[in-house]
Structures are given as structure tokens and as C-alpha cells.
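Progress narrative, Year 2. Work on YnbE family lipoprotein from Fodinicurvata halophila advanced from sequence curation to structure prediction during this period.
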Amino acid sequence: MTRPQKEFSKVIAAALALGLLAACQPTVAVQAPKDPITINLNVKLDADVRVRLEEQAEEDIESRSEIF
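Result:
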């Protein structure tokens, strides 16, 4: 092989290696979900009941302070 042929084969080998590396790059696709997003709000609402009980307890303590 002559010198230009060796250099050309090196260039071809490098291009082939770069092509293979570029072909192995992962792709990322952003897609919307097929099903709609649902948010389940099963929340136990007992804070209002506790506030009412606390207010009632304070009223009972104030009205019957001799018991305590």
C-alpha cells in the first residue's frame, strides 16, 4: 500500500467509527400520556370537627370552671 492509500484507509476507518458511535446515541421522546391524568383527592376532613370540639370544650370549661 502506498502512503496515500494508508491515509485514506485511516480516514475511512475513522469515519466508520464515528458513524457507528453516532448510531448508538440514545434518543429521548417526550410524549403526552394516552390516558388523562387523574388526581385522587380522598382526603379525610376532620379538622373542622376538632375545632368545633375544642371550642365547645373551652365553653364548657368556662361555664363550669368549678368542676375542673
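Residues 3-23 form the longest helix (21 residues). Residues 3-27+41-63 form one domain.
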